């Protein structure tokens, strides 16, 4: 992990229709306190499938950094919160 040889991938069911792929580069709180100091955080996201009926999509989230609740916070920041 320390050498960056492992890549984590998470399936994410989100509300809305995110772009086909991208990088969410947005600082997030360091801990549980939402008003605490923010630290750099990056998450790559790739769309897998858009629902033809429901306003939701399935994607793969790949965190570049390892912050607490990073994926959830980044998806919410991108206006595609997890369901």
> Low-confidence spans: pLDDT under 50, at least 5 residues?
none
Major beta sheet summary? 4 strands, antiparallel
- Arrangement of strands in the largest sheet: 1-6-5-2
Order of helices and strands: EEEEEEH
Radius of gyration: 13 Å
TL;DR?
The protein has one helix and six strands.
List the helices and strands and how they pair.
Layout: E1 10-15, E2 21-25, E3 28-29, E4 38-39, E5 42-50, E6 56-63, H1 70-77
Antiparallel strand pairs: 1-6, 2-5, 3-4, 5-6
What does this structure look like?
By secondary structure, the protein is mainly beta. The model has no long low-confidence stretch (mean pLDDT 92). The longest helix is centred in the last third of the chain and has 8 residues. A four-stranded antiparallel sheet has the order 1-6-5-2, covered by helices on one side. It has one helix and six strands. Strand 3 and strand 4 form a beta hairpin.
Could you list some keywords that capture this structure?
mainly beta, globular, 4-stranded antiparallel β-sheet, 83 residues, 39% strand
């Amino acid at each position: 992990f320390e050498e960056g040889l492992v890549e984590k991938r998470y399936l994410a069911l989100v509300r809305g229709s995110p772009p086909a792929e991208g990088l969410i580069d947005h600082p997030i709180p360091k801990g549980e306190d939402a008003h605490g100091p923010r630290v750099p955080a990056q998450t790559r996201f790739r769309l897998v499938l858009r629902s033809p009926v429901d306003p939701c999509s399935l994607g793969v989230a790949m965190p570049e950094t390892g912050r607490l609740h990073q994926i959830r916070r980044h998806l919410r920041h991108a206006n595609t919160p997890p369901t």
